[in-house]
Please model this.
Amino acid sequence: MLQRQFAEYLFLAPQTVSRWESGGGTPDIALMPKIAAFFGISIDELFGATSLERTANLVSKYSVLRDDRSFREAMDYIDSQLQTINAALSSGSGDPEGLEKERDQLNAEKVHMWLQLGRESFGRALAITEDFIEKTHGDPGHQWYLPMRLQRDQLCDNLGRGRETLLEREKAFTERPDSVTLLRYLSMLDQRQEFEKLLSVFETDGPARKIAFPTSEENLPIWCQLVHAAAETGDTGFIEQYLPPVLAVCGPALEMELSGLTSGSFKTFLCSPFKCAREYAIIKIYCDF
Model:
């Protein structure tokens, strides 16, 4: 390519291009897209940026903007680069070791993007639950009073505030022991897989036992947590003692269906029209034991 031809393409004098080559100046930024197009490369490539550097820039952009468009832009670019690398590896072209390292880096960036999106999604969901909690304050009979509070606790755990939330739930139950504060406390212990501590709440002759007895429709969710914790810790004695009265609360019809159920047919049973989602944990434990 002649210097004159390049200058003509840019509608400039050849002397201008000559000065760029000798370090006497640089092209106007408005010319960059046209220069990149002339050489058949991206503007990033024109400035010497690698695909990994562009990926890092797009990931950083999403970290700041946190919008769907930036997320999609970064993920689409990562996916396109991964497709290119996979094609090169399949065809045996390029440096296999270098391509593998680049693919690992791109996949690491992809994991980082999904984690960021997860935190963003959890944050948005948490804001909704907070609105529900404010809306239903003082109205425990509202259908979303308890579900949204349980969901809020779980989201806090997902956002890395689990220990703090657990202490809040423990304090609330200690100060105001009732079925709601107990269930929220047990649910947080279950969420964090602190099953032995969950059972210890029930072992002492305190407010938890008074709330849990007698077994009824109202406290069935509490028993779901207790029996699940017993199953996780292998406490068969607890299950043998307390599962029968819990199953009785589920209803005779359900108990008849369960009587012939084995672990192998459990999955099929769950696919059938099911009575009540809150009985899921108890039924699974029945099948396992």
